[in-house]
Design brief:
Shape: globular
Low-confidence stretches: none
Order of helices and strands: HHEHEHEHEHEEEEEHHHEEHHEEHEH
Distance between the termini: 25 Å
Number of helices: 13
Mean pLDDT: 97
Number of strands: 14
Length: about 375
């Protein structure tokens, strides 16, 4: 059997929730399970937030940036090390991304570099329309510093929390609660899944109302189909929301299991030249994926050698995200940093981290790596 990087892990509760949706015949996009799912996520995040369940995290980001007023030619400042879906919506709206490096102590956007560049941009009269920092591999960005910077320069802040559902920024605040809006993802490889799906979370009631309107083809109130603007078919299906209800019941347990997997890897593979993603002070990372770096000069092997060896044994692993400023699509795009993300991409590897991975499977991964490095 192949050992996967991170596959869906059902709890047994999902089928009952889906059966309820079928029994009520709410199989169309909107229904009671969808409303309940949004309410359950809002309560989990601490309440007082407006949640809009959508077809993907990218759809959520697209709507959030449109609500933030991003249009043709506007700059959006983004973490360079992120999934492509965390940047493409900028292009959908005709905006221009500007990319930022990571802080080596947290592997999230370097707020010092961001602050410096905001000061320069303010002096030159070219502040961005929005900032989109990425929560990486289960760890939240520094919400306090980012919100302070956004307020100081009156710039919209949209936090890409697609990879951090279940994490906490502090003892009183969960990932996904930051900025004008936050983006969640429930894709099949995430810590919990709705098969595919995402969510826009916002403190602005009017943003949530407009997001629901735009996500259902922007149909005006009329007996016929009336449209004063264009919209999208972005709403999450009621059936998928029912799956999400079952998954929310085990979210904390899934995070606990992934943290245990991370801890076991860290103990077993500790060696000079092998470093694991740090956990920022005061934060609680879900360790969605266990990520490490391999220094070939100290270890005598490189990331790619380990990845290919694992692949030969039907074990899936993958490099860290290739920074967006290194992608052919964004060649020549402005980038600020000293290449922390470039080095992480060069030497970084994501190991199998699924919460349904057995101890025996993890032992095999560890033994394969140790044996390979010993040679």
């Amino acid at each position: 059997m192949r050992i996967w990087l991170s596959r869906p892990h059902m709890s047994g509760n999902e089928e009952a929730k889906v059966a309820e949706a079928f029994a009520s015949n709410f199989v169309a996009p909107i229904g009671p399970q969808l409303n309940e799912f949004e309410a359950v996520v809002s309560d989990y995040l601490g309440g007082g937030l407006h949640c809009v369940a959508l077809s993907s995290g990218s759809a959520a980001l697209h709507l959030a940036l449109r609500l933030a007023g991003v249009g043709h030619g506007d700059e959006v400042w983004v973490s360079s090390m992120t999934f492509a879906g965390g940047v493409f919506p900028v292009n959908y709206l005709g905006g221009k991304p500007r990319f930022f490096d990571l802080d080596p102590q947290s592997w999230t956007i370097d707020t010092q570099i961001l602050a410096e560049q905001l000061g320069i941009a303010a002096t030159e009269g070219r502040l961005p329309k929005a900032i989109v920092p990425t929560d990486l591999y289960g760890q939240s960005v520094d919400l306090d510093q980012l919100e302070a910077l956004a307020a100081k320069y009156d710039v919209r802040l949209v936090v890409d929390s697609a990879e951090s559902v279940g994490a906490s920024f502090s003892s009183t605040r969960k990932a996904g609660t930051g900025g004008d809006a936050a983006i969640l993802s429930f894709n099949g490889n995430k810590i919990i899944t709705t098969s595919g799906g995402g969510m826009l979370v916002t403190k602005h009631a009017e943003w949530a109302e407009e997001a629901r309107f735009l996500a259902t083809q922007a149909r005006d109130s009329a007996p016929h189909y009336e449209h004063s603007t264009f919209g999208y078919n972005y709403r999450l299906s009621n059936i998928c929301a029912a799956i999400g209800l079952g998954q929310m019941q085990v979210l904390d347990a899934r995070a606990k299991r992934r943290r245990a997997i991370f801890a076991k890897y860290e103990r077993a593979l500790a060696a000079p030249g092998i470093d694991f993603m740090p956990e920022a002070d005061g934060q609680f990372s879900t360790r969605w994926l266990t990520t490490l770096t391999i220094d070939p000069e100290q270890v005598g092997a490189n990331r790619e050698g380990v990845r290919l060896m694992l692949l030969e044994h039907e074990i899936e692993s993958r490099p860290l995200w290739k920074p967006m400023h290194m992608q052919p699509l964004y060649s020549g795009t402005e980038y600020h940093g000293c290449g922390v993300d470039e080095r992480l991409f060069k030497n970084g590897l994501c190991l199998p981290s699924g919460s349904d991975m057995s101890d025996a499977e993890q032992d095999e991964v560890i033994e394969r790596i140790l044996s390979f490095l010993a040679r």
